[in-house]
Amino acid sequence: PASSETKRGHVTTSGGNNKQGGGNSNNKDYKDNNNNNNTMMEEVEILPNDKSRLCALAFKVVHDHKRGLIVYTRVYSGVLRPGAMLVNVKDEKRERALKLFQISADDMDEVNEVKAGDICAIVGLKSASTGDTLVSSEDKWRPLLSGIKKPPPVFFCSLEPSTQAAYDPLIEALQYIEKEDPSFHLTPPADSETGQILASGMGELHLEIVKHRIDTHFKVPCQMGRMQVQYRGCVSQEYDIDRFMHQSELGGRRLSAGLTLHIAPAATRGEGNSIVYAIKQDDTNLKTDAWREITAAIDEGIQSAWQRGVPFGFPVMDMVVTVRDIHVTSPMESTPTAFRACAMKAIIQTAEAQGAAV
């Protein structure tokens, strides 16, 4: 047991200085681009105390034919016992830890409790993935431990089952591998543009190992398609879009909307795309419901432009879009549909005109 080690995490709060788990904390704001509200996240130190509330990190997941998913877990505070009902902070799913094991090489010895600082293997969890935070369902405390950062995939290929009967086992095997390996990503046929099963990873060797594991461990016959590089587009400099206007007709109804935007590359590569609103509802004449609908439509338009991609149709990465002003012609013409189209066209046309990079 590492009785002197502390672990940093974040606790969602509604504001104020609500300290959880002991230690000093620093308030931090995190931008939530879905609803344009600031979600308060308080950084805390979780002390390794057996009498504290349960908080554990699933740092490794392995599939076993006899036991199912074996979740290797480090308990950072509290005590974990067999039969405990756990909540996955990531998706709020509740599952019961049926059995706990202490691992020693290939031997697994069943134990009755795991204290703070100890490592164990949990059997009975079905939805846990590598890097998830687990807490007790009896507690409303929701700390989010700093888990494993998932790198973006670089290569992808298609996987096809050899027979129709092998389709479901192949999907199930790939889902298990995705839980084990944070750098592997599965795109099911329903979500892919080609209607194929797409496997994405960090390189050719990575995907070849995945294919070998499907053949040897899961024993599912399948064929692997040609490896392809997962290109992405990005912008290399900042651009100002001053009062971009969109006008069209839909079903005999005139639509008109305008936006003033600022496009810039992210500060660091791999940071991802983000949307920032430099304008607030008080700066406009929009009512609360109209503001919520229009900003949601603008977000959808920008995200559609990112997914459509520039140039050559490659999805966009590491772009920061700042909405500086919203231009409403009239309540009848400036609908959410108009703003959605305006945002998408503004991003695509500007990036193509200025020359985005691959």
Mean pLDDT across all residues, rounded? 84
Please state roughly what percent of the residues sit in beta strands, choosing from under 5%, 5-15%, 15-25%, 25-35%, 35-45% or over 45%. 35-45%
User: Uncertain runs with pLDDT below 50, 5 residues or more?
Assistant: 12-39
Give me the oligomer status.
Answer: single chain
Give the % helix.
Answer: 10-25%
Can you give a write-up of this model?
- This protein has 358 residues and is α+β, with helices and mostly antiparallel strands.
- 19% of the residues lie in helices and 38% in strands.
- It has four helices and 21 strands.
- The chain has helices at 167-180, 204-216, 288-308, 336-354, and strands at 7-13, 26-32, 37-46, 55-64, 68-77, 85-88, 93-96, 99-104, 107-111, 119-123, 132-136, 143-145, 155-161, 185-187, 197-201, 222-224, 228-229, 239-250, 253-265, 274-277, 319-328.
- The strands form four sheets. The chain has an eight-stranded antiparallel beta sheet. Strands 13, 14, 15, 16 and 17 form a five-stranded antiparallel beta sheet that branches. Strands 2-3-1-12 form a four-stranded antiparallel beta sheet, with no helix packed on it.
- A hairpin with a 4-residue loop joins strand 6 (85-88) and strand 7.
- Helix 3 runs parallel beside helix 4.
- The chain is globular and about 70 Å long.
- The protein starts with 6 loop residues before the first strand and ends with a helix.
